[in-house]
Amino acid sequence: MSALREVVITGAGVVAPLGHTPAELFDALLAGRSAIAPVEAFDVSPFPCKVAARVKGYKARDWVANRKNLKLMSDAVRFGMGALKRAHADAGLADAGVAPERLGLFVGAGTAVGRTEDLVPAIERSVRDGAFDPKAFGEVGMHAINPLWLLKGLSNNVLGFGTADLDARGVNQNYCNSGVGGLQAIGEAAWAIVEGKADVVLAGSADSAVNPLHFTGFGRLRAMTGNGGADAVRPFDARHDGFAPGEGAAFFALETEAHARARGARILGRIAGYGDGCGAQSLSAGDLGVITATCRRALERAGWDPETVDLVYAHGNGTPVYDRREAQAIAAVLGPRSAAVTTNKAQIGHAMAAGGPLSLACALEAGRRNTVPAVAGVDQLDPKCADIDLVRGEARRTPVRRALVHAAGLGAQTTFIAVEFTP
Amino acid sequence: MEPVVITGIGCVTPLGLDVDQTWRALTRGQNAIGPITRFEAQTYPCTFAAEIRGFDPPKLHGRFGRWRDDKSSFAVAAAREAMADAGLEPGAGDPDRFGVSVGAEVSRPGIGEVAERMGQMALHGAERAYRATDPKEFAVMSAFFPATALAAVMQARGPNLTTATACTSSAQSIADALRILRRGDADVMLAGGTDRLVEELMVMGFGLLGALSTRNDDPTRACRPFDRTRDGFVLGEGAGFLVLETLSHAKARGARVRAVLRGYGWSANAWRITDSPPDGRGAKHAMLEAMRDAGVAPGEVDYINAHGTSTQQNDASETAGIRGAFGADAERVPISSTKSMMGHLVAACAAVELIACVKAIETGVIPPTINYEHPDPDCDLDYVPNAAREARVDVAMSNAFGFGGSNGTLIVSRHS
């Protein structure tokens, strides 16, 4: 049992495929809808993966105070600003009287897209005698590039723009850790509150894998699905063949229970535990021993017996090798088919760093409604994933008091957040 | 709360490929800044930098022998020195209680490479270009890769974090290691930062922003923090790593304690992406928070290793921040910017500068701010101009402030 339990979640904001609030997203998941569809924004013909889950109908202009900054913001940063400000509003922080120095922001950032596409005109101007000439690039070529080019590619733009927008002058962090950065931001933010470094910390992540850089990178690693259609991704299913790229953002307001009660804030859940580890001997496959050890650390922090976990919001991205490892780890730590297991990645794809926080947003809804969505696209479990109680077919009505949220990263990182709901 | 101590240090910098070489150069006021040799930079707005020279990437077996770029190689070399200095083998006794916290940013391809790819795509089509892409590339260039490589090479299965807050990255990664050790999530942490910046797109990007010095006719005198004629920062590169552990763990294994990591302070400017507020409020808040966390009063601080980038804005704003945080003690405390000699290591700067603070405590020598010639009314404190100074240092502070507005301050003290 630890002091971490003092930290509660009092607001949530989401910008995701299928929904712009946690409730809207969760309703769509319950209805079995999938956002996975053919990519139209760029030419996917070179890539084995042809589909992705995209955010639709989102207007960043509504969420960015200084609109001049919009031109410096990537898609992911724009999603982040909306989710961040929704979480801030959802927690009723606008008039809560939190001093700027006591308001913090922790972000899990994605791999900043290097913006090499912006270099094309500069390179074209630097060709001499049919070849790229570095001297001409310095003299002429680079001056065709927007002088603010570097700023567009900063990996901490949600943090920079977000702190300015909300006048959050307190503790802050930006984790750039592939798929786990978002949950790390939430776990580390919770500890910052325990340390007494802030009254309220907003924490979460924004990311997008729907761009040629990610299609190339994960395509070459053979991690993406080659299936078409809305049911392309089949986590834990015998026919799983990879993930579909996704995008989105989720942010949360964290504070101590005492602070939340004193200001009459609504409590969505309690951060009970957090564990983080890295099994770098095997990159994308993860290391079973490290996943189980990390999961146990989160449970120890929470003071939970493994069999008391009601729900696991799994990483469950639909890559065969990782699905198997994760299923084995869940079964090894919690006991075979002990907790209900679900994932949203068959319906909203893999939003990289934002994947974990989007799962947490769904877990909060599951706790509120005592309902667990089914994993779409699963007909027959992979026999090597058979030791978990995967919710499939129809959503399940069941008491959800304790949930584990898991995220995994390309660098073999693994992160768990334990979240508890008081009835 | 369990004290956290520093038992090992290691670095790769433009001034030297280990701590001894780097420290010797720093105390002699040597300069590593010169014309860029790595690529054709003569036509760039800024043509000079502090490059790492003569570095042989450490030889590794297996996957990570091939899966690396320079930023990970710098990290592995510095971390190896730190682990050896701490007398630790990979695994540090218990791999599950051993973690890694790194300040790092994503790598950028060379401009020639980008041009080559564009040409290939035009010539052979996008699909062939896709199939020609090295499958390792995405992971290796990602910001998290040094942390992953270190976890593998050093057998660290515990917490694994990568901070990317530009110039503040390693101040925050080291603070995270301190936090993790204090709360008991690990016994030993390898913490620091790494960056490789002397490459076309970085020199171009910072140059186009107007952030770099353009004193192209006199590069060795270009980096002049706190001097009135300063005109921008100078890119450096390298890595710095420290072995941190709980005092009880260090004692139990009979480790030599080099210094105590006393505390940290973080703040955000909440201002603009590239600028700091002129009143230095964010810097002041980070320093005050660090002193509070460390239980140290302004009067006890014997040395400040400044962020001191040599931009007009940073140095004035930092000076205002020091005045705000230290009050009357601002006039007394020696302040220096080691960037004047090795340039700006960005994601690695705070780690290397914290190592300089540890060495100042151990040796009683404060490294200078070189190229200091013209006093600036907005920078009117004691910057240890041009020559190292002998002084007893029991408590030292290191500042880092970054693009994006994150500020981080660390405090180390003598172990008694």
Write structural notes for this entry.
- The complex is a heterodimer of chains A (423) and B (416).
- Chain A folds into two domains: 3-114 and 153-420, Peroxisomal Thiolase, Chain A, domain 1 (3-Layer(aba) Sandwich); 116-151, no CATH class.
- Helix content of chain A is 30%, strand content 20%.
- Chain A contains 13 helices and 17 strands.
- The longest helix of chain A is centred in the N-terminal third of the chain and has 16 residues, at 75-90.
- Chain B has a single domain (4-107, 142-413), classed as Thiolase/Chalcone synthase (Peroxisomal Thiolase, Chain A, domain 1).
- Chain B has 14 helices and 14 strands.
- In chain B, helix 12 (312-326) links the parallel strand 9 (303-305) and strand 10.
- The longest helix of chain B is centred in the N-terminal third of the chain and has 17 residues, at 70-86.
- Chains A and B meet through strand 4, helix 4, helix 5, helix 6 and strand 7 of A and helix 4, helix 5, helix 6, helix 7 and strand 5 of B.
Q: What oligomeric state do these chains adopt?
A: heterodimer
- CATH H-tier superfamily of chain B: Thiolase/Chalcone synthase
Q: What distance separates the N and C termini of chain A? A: 20 Å
Tell me, what's the shape of chain B?
globular
Total number of beta strands of chain A: 17
Beta strand % of chain B: 15-25%
What's a concise summary of this model?
The complex is a heterodimer of chains A (423) and B (416). Chain A is of the alpha/beta class and 423 residues long.
How is this fold's topology laid out?
The complex is a heterodimer of chains A (423) and B (416).
Chain A: E1 7-15, H1 22-30, E2 36-38, E3 51-53, H2 75-90, E4 103-109, H3 120-124, E5 127-128, E6 131-132, H4 134-139, H5 149-152, H6 157-166, E7 172-175, H7 181-194, E8 200-208, H8 212-220, E9 247-256, H9 257-262, E10 269-278, H10 288-302, E11 311-313, H11 320-334, E12 340-342, H12 345-348, H13 355-369, E13 371-372, E14 389-390, E15 396-397, E16 402-408, E17 413-420
Parallel strand pairs in A: 4-7, 4-8, 11-12, 11-16, 12-14
Antiparallel strand pairs in A: 1-9, 1-10, 2-3, 5-6, 8-9, 10-17, 13-15, 16-17
Chain B: E1 4-12, H1 19-27, E2 33-35, E3 48-50, H2 63-66, H3 70-86, E4 98-103, H4 111-124, H5 126-131, H6 137-141, H7 145-153, E5 160-163, H8 169-182, E6 188-195, H9 200-209, E7 238-246, H10 247-252, E8 259-268, H11 281-294, E9 303-305, H12 312-326, E10 335-336, H13 339-342, H14 349-363, E11 365-366, E12 389-390, E13 395-401, E14 406-413
Parallel strand pairs in B: 4-5, 4-6, 9-10, 9-13
Antiparallel strand pairs in B: 1-7, 1-8, 2-3, 6-7, 8-14, 11-12, 13-14
Helix pairs in contact in B: 3-7, 8-14, 11-12
